[in-house]
Hints:
Shape: globular
Oligomer: single chain
Amino acid sequence: MNERLFSGRAVLTGAGKSQVGRRLGRTGLDLTVEACLRAIADAGLTPDDVDGVASYPGPGVPDRGFSGASVHELRNALGLRSRWYVSSMETAGQIGPAIEACMAVSLGLADHVLVFRSVWESTAQAAGGRASVLFGEGRVPAHLEYMGPFGAPSAVNWLAMPGQRYMHEHGLTREQLGWIAVNARRNAGLNPDAVYRDPMTIQDYLEARMISDPFCLYDCDVPCDGATAVIVSRRDAAAGLPRHPLTVESVGTGMFERATWDQRADLTTMTAHDAAATLWERTSLRPADVDVAQLYDGFSFLTVQWLEAMGFCEHGQVGKFIEGGGRIALDGELPLNTSGGQLSGGRLHGMGFLHEACVQLWGEAGERQVRGNPEVAAVGVGGGPVAGAMLVSNR
Length: 395
């Protein structure tokens, strides 16, 4: 399937981000509105021009702070008249609403769709710490009925098990894994919006306290408050806008096995492999064409999974690929998570990676800008049981 996905009709025309930080004390809706208005203005539009809205995760999320605002709260706040809208947690990772927006504009259901993701977990956790948002209310998910009684209530526990399995089978070492975190901190030092910017060495990483073996403190992302937004437009409707539109070349939406943390046939792979497989089925571009990669790092091991899933290195060989950090540095062959990702930049939960891809392709990343006018960006979002991917170009 090498014909151009969406026939080139789905493009990105604007991107915006709110203030990002730890315990800002602002409401989720306040941050959401800030990011969305910035994205709208960035595209050269007004709220009256926006006729579609999409967001993750949708209503009914029990964990405080996991969702900053719903689609309807945002619509009401901006007075939007929507010809199309959607919000859902059952989608291709946190990037799923952006993929659905591409389908909507390609089918003519809307001209300009505002896609956003907002969190205020850092403020929500201020009183009770991380334990205050682990479960929410009501019955816990099925897998937690088995893991919870053994003291494994967190995703870091669930992921540690396949992480250990991968290390056992393929020889990945903690020293090699640590370069994901060190690279993220190095890039965050050039990003004025990042939460953690102080330098970090591989020795700092190795000496950090263990959270869930083999993952230490610096393998885990940073809960924060913030919001990101992009504008997905129909190419014809983007004529005359100030920005060169970015073309959505392909999307990855596959899920070939059950949605699970621990029941795949090969426990050294995840749903990221399914999403990436469908991404490359839908385009003539290849991994070698990618100039910059924005790959989910809720935990460092998820980035390892995405690097292999996307075909940037062979399965089982990721340790050699990331060792020393040279290949994934800003001036390396595959600049990775150029904003600092979620490990140092802050857990903006998926959409932050798409925002950074746009900024890089428009050449507006400041000190962290990848050299050589990058043309193609790969975005991989989600971990464990859900995942989605997108390939974007400025060609």
